[in-house]
Amino acid sequence: MKHQLPTSDTDFVGSLIPQRFPFVMVHELTEFSESHLISGFEIKDDNIFIQDGTFQASGLIEHQAQSVALHTGYKYYLLGKEAPTGYIGAIKSFEAETLPKTGDRLVSEVTILNEVMGVTLVDIVTKLNGAIIAKSQMKTAVK
User: Fold this and answer.
1) Is 79 exposed, middle or buried (CB count within 10 Å of its CB: 0-12, 13-18, 19+)?
2) Residue 2 pLDDT
3) Does the pLDDT value for residue 1 go beyond 70?
4) Secondary structure (DSSP) of 10-39
5) How far, in Å, CA of 78 to CA of 59, rounded?
6) Residue 141 DSSP SS3
7) Where is 124: in which H helix or E strand?
8) Burial (CB count within 10 angstroms: exposed 0-12, middle 13-18, buried 19+), residue 114
């Protein structure tokens, strides 16, 4: 069965990335193209990156990286293939304006800048209630 976008089917979204509970930091896939993806994530109080009700910067980075993995996973899903495992190769920049809280819903937009021989350079912008709270540029590599 083909899934239509947007989807918040957590089982389907989870099947597109290599991470498993409790390390899943994406719950929704809203938009996809060859060079673009929008993901969503609701922060629960049992999240491993929560400290005193606040989602830590390391969790934001992981959410952004998993959004990139979601792009790769969905692309391979559309091709009918199993997605390769990916890794963060380098974080060129990361800025967090504010840290979200338990119950907040993040929306991240991934823009693929360049993809060569399994290495992908991306810009990622994460928003909370429409306001940008974090930006990064990273390279990911597939195995």
Assistant:
1) exposed
2) 67
3) no
4) HHHHHHTSS--TTS----EEEEEETTEEEE
5) 28
6) strand
7) strand 119-128
8) exposed
Residue whose token pair is 């990064």: 136
Q: Which of 39-48, 74-83, 98-107 has the lowest mean pLDDT?
A: 74-83
Other CB atoms within 10 A of residue 88 CB: 15
The amino acid present at 57, given as its one-letter code, is A
Give the sheet arrangement for strand 119-128, strand by strand: 28-33, 36-42, 105-116, 119-128, 131-142, 86-96
pLDDT at 129 over 90: yes
CA distances in angstroms from 17 to 40, 82, 102, 133, listed in the order given: 14, 10, 23, 24
Could you tell me how many residues make up the chain? 143
